[in-house]
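Quick start: what a row looks like.
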Amino acid sequence: MYRDHTVAVVVPAYNEAGFVGAVIDDLPAFVDRAYLVDDGSTDGTWAEIREHAERRNAAHDGEFDDLVVPIRHDENRGVGGAIKTGYKRARAEGIDVTAVLGGDDQMDPRVLTGYLDPIVEGVAGYAKGNRFARAEDWAEMPRFRLLGNVILSYLTKVASGYWETMDSQNGYTAVSLDALERTDIEGMYEYYGYCNDLLVRLNAADVVVADVPRSSEYAYSEGWKSHIDYTEYIPKVSLMLARAFWWRLRRKYLMTGYSPIAPLYLLGAVASGVGAAGVARSVFDRDADGGSWMTATLVGALTLLYATIRDQEANAHLEHRVGDDDGPAQAAASLDEAGNGADPEPHANGDFASVVDDAPGDGADGPTAVGGGPTDATESDEASSEASPAEGS
C-alpha cells in the first residue's frame, strides 16, 4: 500500500524470457498486487514467470493472499490486450491505483511513486511518462525512434484532445480506479498503439492526465531489442488515430452532450477536401474558376483552425504537468545518491525496498491464470464487449 492507497502493477510479457523475472524480483514492497500476463509467448517466459512468482509469493505478507498473479493468454492478443486483462482484474478487485511496467525490464521500478503521486494526491486520474520534458532525455533516443515518436505524439494530440501532452508512446503509466470505471477499456485497442487509443478514451471520459518527466537512460539497456517494426507501426497507428479522432468527437461532443466543435471539424474537413480537389482539377483543366476553389480551401482551413482552438479550450482543464523536481527522475537521482544503485532503504514517500527471495519454483506450465498455491484459478479471456474506435465504431 502506498499513502493509504492499494497499488497494483500490470506486467505484459511476450517472449521476455531472461527479462521478466527481474521485473518480478524488483517489484517495490508497497505493491499489493502484480498481474503478470504472458501474452501467448513461445519461449520460456511462462516458466520464468511461474518460478519468480512462487518465490515472491512465498515471502509475501500483505492485504492479498498473493502478491504476484500469473495470467496466461492461450493466443497472442497484443500488448494492449495483455494490459486490458490486467486492468480488468485490478478493477474487479477494487485496486485504487494500477500501474504498468513492461515485461522487458526497461522501466525503472524505483521511480514508480512519481507516477502514483499525481493520482493519490487527486490531481489526475492517469499519469504517463514523458521523455521529451528535458533535452538530455530525448537526445538519448535512437533517431528513427525519435522521429516516429514525434509524429505519433502530434497525431495523438489531435486525436485525443490532450494538446499539451507529449510522448504518447510512453508505456510507463498509472491509472486510478475511478478512471478505469469511467473509461471504456473493454474496447481498447489491443496491439501496439493501445496507449494512443487509451488517451482518446480517457479524454472522452473527461479524465485528467498528468505528464510526468521520465529519463530515457534506463530504457535502452544492453541486450534489449524492441518488438516494434516502425515502418509498419507508424502507418497502422496513424490510421487507427484518424478513426479514433472521429469516435471521440462523436462520443464527447454529440452523444453525451452537444458542442459545435464536432460540426466545425466536419465542415472544415469537407470544405478543405473539396476545395483542394477543385484547385487540383483547375490546374490540370485550366479552369477559370480556380480562385473560387482556393477560397473554399482557405475557408475550410480556417474553420479547422477555429475548431482546433475550441477543442484546446474545451480540454485545457484535463491536463496536468508535473515539474522536474517532483517527477520520477528526481526520485531516482535521490535514491542513487543514497544507495549508489543498490536496493534503497525506505523513503519518506513510501517504501522503495524490494524483496528478493530464494525459494525455488517448478516453473512448469499451468492453466490460463494462476491464483497461487496448489490450487490454480482460471481467468476468463473474453473478447471485447464494445467495438474499438480503431475498428470504426
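That is the whole record. The chain has twelve helices and eight strands. The longest strand covers residues 7-13.
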